[in-house]
Every structure is written in structure tokens, then in C-alpha cells.
Amino acid sequence: MERLDKYLASRGVGTRKEVQKLIKSGAVTADGAVCKTIDRKIDPDNTVVLVNGQAVGEKYIYIMMNKPAGVVSATEDKRDKTVIDILPDQLKRRGLFPAGRLDKDTEGLLIITNDGELAHRMLSPKKHVEKRYVATVDGEINDDIIKRFERGIELSDGYKCMPAKLELMTKNDNGIGTVTICEGKFHQVKRMFSACGLNIVHLQRISIGNLYLDSNLPIGDCKTLTNLEILQVFIGNIH
Ligand code: URA
User: Whole-model pTM?
Assistant: First the structure.
């Protein structure tokens, strides 16, 4: 059982104060009856709660963003625009954060959610969730580099990466590769290439687990994912 005001606030209807005002105004019904008692206990799974006749949304929201370069993966920042700042108004609600980070200059698949538990599971090194990137580098990706990725690259600070898969994107361009890693160290892909003497000139994340960036989603745009779709992040890994 959950207090009505807490239930509404946790589903993004407003702050605790705002929803209490709404309840007192008579805008909220529980199973068809107006309820003006803010601490009324409801069973969240078996009560139909409406605000001004509208169904209340799910507790958690999962947003796929095609992150553009130039915005930071944070909830707030003094200098730069954040991925939360560029969300469309209808998706903005309290408690949203990016689940994992992409560098400011990296583009592609980013999940934004208010579900801390899912984000934790997704980012946990123990879960070995695969992240796949398309990297354009300033030199040639040769067999030796591919093998070094396979064995596990040693970064400049001595950290030994887990084995990673590096493949050429197309046969006739050895400057673009897809990289699959299941860790998430700071600047990891850039540092892996840098250990092999190559610099990344463009980096885009294309998948997390079995969840792929929607190729119809323009850079900078977002779409919501269903509970089933987000579970794709836990399907498929290289170990
Ligand atoms: N690795 C990087 O170097 N940068 C990213 O944004 C993601 C992975």
C-alpha cells in the first residue's frame, strides 16, 4: 500500500506539495471516487487513479536518446548543456538521469531513466553488459590491433582491459571499426585506441546489450521505450 500523495509524486505528476494541492482540489479520483485525503492508502497495482480524468503514468520511464555531440551526460552542469536540458518538455520529470555516460563529443545511444535499480544493474561490471561503438580513427586498424583488443588492451595507467571485439566496419575502409566492450571505464574506447597509437576522430554508441539505437531517430531526438524494450539491454554478451 502507498500513500496517495507519494504515489502521484513518484509517477511524475508533480512535487509532493503540488500533488497534495491537486488532491485537496478534488482533481484526483481513486477507483472512480473523488479522493481529497492526501494520506489515503492505495494499492498501486489494483487501483485506478485518475488526475483530471487522465490516467497516471508508469512509475518509471525509459528514454532512448540519440545523444548529439556538445552536451554532457549529467543532470546539471554549470558550463554545458546537459542531456536532461535537451529533453522535450513532455518527457521532462523529476528524478531523471542518464544511465551511464558518453563523453561530451560522443554521439549515439544513451538511456535516460528514473529507475535507479535498472541503471545499477545495467552499469554493474558484474553484469558484463556489452556496449558497441562505431569508431572512426586517424589511421589504419590492422590485424595486430584487432588481436591486441582480443587479448585485452593495457591502458597507459597499467589497467588491463577485458577482452574486446574490434571489427572493421567495411572491407574497403580500415579507418572505421566497431568495438564491443563490456566495461565502462572513463574514456575507455579512446584510451584503448590510444594505447595502439590511434586517435578517435568520431565515436558513436550503437547498442547496449541487445538494445540498438533506432536508426530512424535523428541526432538529438528521443523516444520512450516500453518495459519490454528496455529489458533488451540485458540480453546478449561476449562472455
Ligand atoms: N569510450 C569513450 O572513450 N568515450 C565514450 O563516450 C564512451 C566510451
Answer: 0.82
